[in-house]
Design brief:
The structure is a homodimer. By secondary structure, the first copy, chain A, is mainly alpha-helical. The first copy, chain A, contains 10 helices and no strands. In chain A, helix 2 (about 15-35) crosses helix 5. The first copy, chain A, starts with a helix and ends with a helix.
Chain lengths: ~210, ~210
Amino acid sequence: MSIQESRDLQRELVEPKKGAQTKRSIIEAALTIASKSGLEGLTIGNIAEAVKMSKSGVFAHFGSREELQVAVVREYYQRFQDLIFSPALLKPKGLPRLNQMIQSWIKMSTGDDSSSCFFIAGAVEFDDQPGIVRDELVRSVEDWRSAIRRGIQESIAAGHLKKSVNVEILLFQLYSIALGVHHDSRFLDNPKCLANANKLIKEILSSYKSN
Amino acid sequence: MSIQESRDLQRELVEPKKGAQTKRSIIEAALTIASKSGLEGLTIGNIAEAVKMSKSGVFAHFGSREELQVAVVREYYQRFQDLIFSPALLKPKGLPRLNQMIQSWIKMSTGDDSSSCFFIAGAVEFDDQPGIVRDELVRSVEDWRSAIRRGIQESIAAGHLKKSVNVEILLFQLYSIALGVHHDSRFLDNPKCLANANKLIKEILSSYKSN
């Protein structure tokens, strides 16, 4: 750590706002790197370079690479909530809300300015790596799945979907379609996949509609 | 490179069989590492350690890390063909063959001794990384998708599935289910996902059956 950074850190200890600000700019830079190279692409080194700090300066804010990765997952979860989940809550309970959740999610990973979904990419990166990052990712993904599950249950309760619908299978089906769109759009560069997925979701939900 | 390795390499130049053998054992070790840590987890360093060679010894067989990754993708493709695709060809054309292809593929990523599918994991690892590894992966995945597409078309031609089936949408649907099983089994440790996926595939194909 340079003398300047050491001084900055001492000042941050008496000025917590400044410290929180630095921490935020580190997380911001880490989010940008991870959306390109994955959570595994994050190193204290490349973040330090991005925020123009020394490695030990970054370490002073996050004790380890894993803790920083966890902070990035938490921040992503917050943004995902603001961008995808909260707007859906403005729609009426049942199919309108469920549809909005799925549509806005799958749209996120398509188009020219598409970004990788941390929930989807992280699942592949960390499926074989036990630890605090995987745990945080699983927690976030399970939260999101619970929201979709609730959307399905509310659609049944509202009489929009048949009572006989198998909630877990429909959840699996919708989640798989989102994985498919992420795959076909980002890896196969297939511009038609969003339209195909939307057509398919419409067909699936129609087939489950109560008469 | 040690004197011993330099001698070995010189001998391999006059004994091509020995050289091919070393190359194979490098690829073998790389496959084991990549099935745990992904293609991105491969470094010349960790492979050299696994095969007890120096880094320059490994470099003498593969000019770069990317070339080694490409060789690993090719080897995986070969094994995938032997394990998943070729046995399906023994089944009659149409639904029996299509079913066999999908069933054996999704079974691969479940169970205690499950291994990550390079086609699925690689797609996420390399979707944002242009280059020869991504190109090789896309080629392999497109080959496999062509085989599934052919399976659907043959099912229609054999009268097992309706003529009105949208081939691309059914391909998207089946491929997405495989992504879903890989996700739920490996990341969420959900033991029920294979049974749910099988039930779903049966339902989907039934709904598309010609009367």
